[in-house]
Every structure is written in structure tokens, then in C-alpha cells.
Amino acid sequence: MTSFSCGIAVGLALLAAPVQAASPSFDCAKAGTATEHAICASDVLAGLDRHLAEAYRAARAGAGETGVAQIRADQVAWIARRDACGGDAGCIEDRMEARLRQLQSLLANGLADSGLSGAYCAGADLLLVEDDGGSVEFSISSFQGGGHSCGTGRVRATQSGPEYVGQADGCSFRLTVADDRIVFTSGGEPECRQFCGARASFGTHIFPFSTRRSAPPEWTTAGESGGC
Fold it and tell me: How far apart are CA 211 and CA 207, in angstroms?
């Protein structure tokens, strides 16, 4: 069995296992934040922390150099979001579980080395992403009933923290990576109207990582790829 296959098997077994009382992945004697102290004080959070650390290692084991760098950057950004919970145990648990689902998606779909690359669905809406490391190219198609829709060609967006920001023909677009999902928004400029039919408009579109699959090879636009 390859190291990648082993990583998938280990990661999925960990994520499927029930959370049991456990020590966290770090030394509680060195806990330095309210969040770390809350994790050390809770068997549930401590168990989640250890499962998450093991799943993180499994994801990195199944990734090449580019994938490892992206997974590490995602982890750093996620830790900042987790620590924003302070000592709120419910908030910490929610964000830990969301990160586990994100890592589960990477492992289950064999995408640990692909960054954000893939096809994501939200109902009939489709988001295609090609991750180049530090920037992405994406295309979205959104079907809004009555035959009305919005869609873009390939749009290049540059990474800024957890966000990727791009522009096409005067309309700005933003992809925000938030725990277990990608959130698409447009800037709402008048030029954005050209991407939509008469009774359609871009709003906020949420694409869960759990829906991700491999994107069609050599894709051009989401609309031409047939939707979800």
C-alpha cells in the first residue's frame, strides 16, 4: 500500500472514530492562549484536537511539495480562526469539527496535493477552481430558476490571507476559504450585470468542501462543464 493510500485509510478511520477522552496533541503545561486552556480542560475538545492533528499529518503524508505547503497555510489560517473563539468551548468544537470535515474531503477524494483545485456544488450551482499556489483560476455558473442564470469565464484571483480576489471586465470577485466551505461573492459593480441574465444576479454562494470532486480535465468554464 502506498503512503498516500495509507494516509487516506488512517485519516478516514480517525475521522470516523468516536471522540473519546484523550490528551490533546500539545503539552497542556505550555498552553498559552484561552483556546488552548479550554481544550486542555475538556475531554471532548482534547480528543478532537488529537484526531485533528493525526488527520492533518495523514493529509500532509498524502501530498506532494505544493500540497503540503497549501495544507500548512490552511492550517495556520484555521488556527487563527479557532483562537478567535477565545475560551468558548462550543465555538472551538464547531471549528474543530469543520476543519476535520475539510481534511476528510481532501483524504476521501485524493485531493491532498491539489490545494483548492476541484469542482464544488451548491445545489445546481457549480464552482470550478484550479489552484496554482498563491493564485487560482475559477469559473462559476449559477442557475436561479425560470431559465435565468449567471456565469463567468475563467477568472484569475490572487490570494490575500484566506481570500482570493480577482476582477473581470470591471466586476470584482472574491473567494473566501472559511473552515469547511468556499464562499463566493461579487463586488456588485454595475459591470457585474453582464455576467447574468435579465432576472438573475450574483449573490453569496456557499460551496461546501464535502461536495468537492475532481474538476473536468482542461475545463474552460463552469457553464460549459454542465453544472452539478
Answer: 7
